[in-house]
Amino acid sequence: MKLGVLVSDYRNMEDTLLRLTADTLGIILVSNGVYHAKVKENGKTSPVLEKSPHLYALLEDIQTRGLENEIDGRVKSITYNDLVDLIFGEYEKVIWI
Amino acid sequence: MKLGVLVSDYRNMEDTLLRLTADTLGIILVSNGVYHAKVKENGKTSPVLEKSPHLYALLEDIQTRGLENEIDGRVKSITYNDLVDLIFGEYEKVIWI
Amino acid sequence: MAKLTIGVFSSLVGSLSLDFAVKLADAAVKKGHSVDFWVSGNATMLSKKEQRAFKDYSALQKTLQELMKTGNFQATACEACAEARGYHKEDTMEGFQRHSMDWYLASGFSADRVLHIGGD
Amino acid sequence: MAKLTIGVFSSLVGSLSLDFAVKLADAAVKKGHSVDFWVSGNATMLSKKEQRAFKDYSALQKTLQELMKTGNFQATACEACAEARGYHKEDTMEGFQRHSMDWYLASGFSADRVLHIGGD
Amino acid sequence: MAIKKIAFIVKSLPYKTEASRLALTHAIASQTVEIYLEDGDNVEPVLAFIGDGVLNCLKDQKAMNAYGVTSLEQHLKNSLLLDLKVLICKEDIGKFSLSEDSLIMDAEDIGGETKANIVPFSEIMKEMESANHLMFF
Amino acid sequence: MAIKKIAFIVKSLPYKTEASRLALTHAIASQTVEIYLEDGDNVEPVLAFIGDGVLNCLKDQKAMNAYGVTSLEQHLKNSLLLDLKVLICKEDIGKFSLSEDSLIMDAEDIGGETKANIVPFSEIMKEMESANHLMFF
């Protein structure tokens, strides 16, 4: 299964995202999920970034929250246009959590 | 300060409830906060129950969620009528978190 | 007797926080207290007239209107929050007032207790 | 081209999830895809006509109506969810359909992708 | 002629928001979806409760008495009565120390024959793999 | 003649819900509350950001460009311009490894003179003690 996960929040990923398994798992940070790409809590980067090598974050949501500097280097910024292509082109199913 | 805290949720109490200090701190479990009075996670009762000796839970909310059995013995069930008296009689300020 | 101001903010309809706030107000008024009831943000949904009663939703219009009749309960919706959602004066439940946000603070000024129900 | 069904559920107005869903639909339609847009629960707020534009809220009625004109976008509100909130047929934004919940599942049947935006 | 499978994954607590309620009502709406589809086409729902969502499955929910609203228990029983597949995550039941006795496992009292199933998360993951679309509530 | 102090405690992340936005707009509404009160009476707001709420205070929020809505940054600057007391929790700034440089600490660019204060949680607790009413957003 090629699964694209739109992560829209910063808390409580243990019961959902962190348990999911897929042949290809893409993580697309949107809404308050984009904090995972920047915020270090007690010096540690978010465990969400360790879950997959396929990491994206929505540029508009990064900019809205004042996070443009110091986004983790593993995370690729994408536009809404890119997101449409990811949804149809790279993943068979998409979820929003 | 005599502070009454209406705890309305089950998650993310670390930044709020668990840091509060008051001469008298009352914890009133309402809405999904009533799960603190029953659910053991990994065998442990909720840390919320350790925060204060003044523990209450709203009967209607317990009943709604099927939690009437096995409520922790430290927690006193109260009605809406009791809650009005607690708010005016026992606490100087009340918050909902 | 005392005065309680209840402010309810986020998404009410479909949430039992709505019922909580109204039941608490009802219990307080029945004990002789007065209650100011402020709805802001998505909670302004409560002020929409002609909500239809379904078993999956609480139907609170009747309780609210009985509370209003006591003279010890006033309900006010945030005017800007309501307009932003397309609730105009003519969409508003009878007896529900509309004011700007300072009304809530003024109500708090004279209240013995304020219970602010925030959340998502 | 492909079909995307977007379902949006909880409290939309006042939340940028609303803008997300509409912007995504807009980008998909501009790329030649078709989009079905379902609002249920508190998200039925989006279907209320005459929402007033404030700088503190997204004003999306215009974008929605332009999307509807393309013929590749249809927006539907859950009828029971809307009625429970006091949104009747005459309260509904022009071009917004109302159906029962099975419409969303039927839309999913023929969709290449479904993005279900739940949450609080 | 095709059957499309939709997995409804419930991860939210009940009542405070209507997320889990909408999951059940939408899943049940699959019963009438045929009216929109060609002959032989249909949608097959699967309901799975994970994480905090398993607490939707506790017995004896008295929401109608206390608040005058249909309980999640009633919706879950209706789902079983209509023979929907219902899965409850075994690991989460364990995490919350819930016994099977405390859970809504059947709808016998209203004439239902289908039972809920307590299964490991890996089984739920397999359902997600075989589903055409996934909806997390 | 009396002054009642109301503490607005912001613990929520911005934008996904409007909780923090409503905190700031209601706190700012204290500027016009006098019209409802007797001469000399007034309401004094204090704004405090704790927990995840401190992330409302990050600079360079481009919400107007990206979504056409007023940013929390703009509201926070307006609060400072109106001389509202603004406190940001020191421990939470530390927990998130945020520098003071990255935070909205003043509204000089719009002519404001009041500055935000980074203070230990114990100071915020003292504000709560001296307030007449508390509102958590």
Describe the structure using short key phrases.
heterohexamer, A: Hypothetical Protein Ychn, Chain: A, 5-stranded parallel sheet, 2 helices, 5 strands, 25% strand, E: 5-stranded parallel sheet, 20% strand, globular
Describe this protein's structure:
The complex is a heterohexamer, with 2 copies of chain A (97 residues), 2 copies of chain C (120 residues) and 2 copies of chain E (137 residues). By secondary structure, chain A is α/β, with parallel strands linked by helices. Chain A has a single domain, classed as DsrEFH-like (Hypothetical Protein Ychn, Chain: A). Chain A is 16% helix and 25% strand. Chain A contains 2 helices and 5 strands, in the order βββαβαβ. Chain A starts with a strand and ends with a strand. Chain C has a single domain, classed as 3-Layer(aba) Sandwich (Hypothetical Protein Ychn, Chain: A), CATH 3.40.1260. Chain C contains 4 helices and 5 strands; from the N terminus they run βαβαβαβαβ. A 5-stranded parallel sheet of chain C has the order 4-3-2-1-5, with helices on both faces. The longest helix of chain C is centred in the N-terminal third of the chain and has 15 residues. Chain E is α/β, with parallel strands linked by helices and 137 residues long. Chain E has one domain: DsrEFH-like (Hypothetical Protein Ychn, Chain: A). Chain E has 5 helices and 5 strands; from the N terminus they run βαβααβαβαβ. A 5-stranded parallel sheet of chain E has the order 4-3-2-1-5, with helices on both faces. In chain E, α1 packs parallel to α3. The longest helix of chain E is centred in the N-terminal third of the chain and has 10 residues. Classes of the chains: A alpha/beta (97), C alpha/beta (120), E alpha/beta (137). Chains in contact: A-D, A-E, A-F, B-C, B-E, B-F, C-D, C-E, C-F, D-E, D-F. The interface between C and D is medium-sized, with 26 and 26 residues.
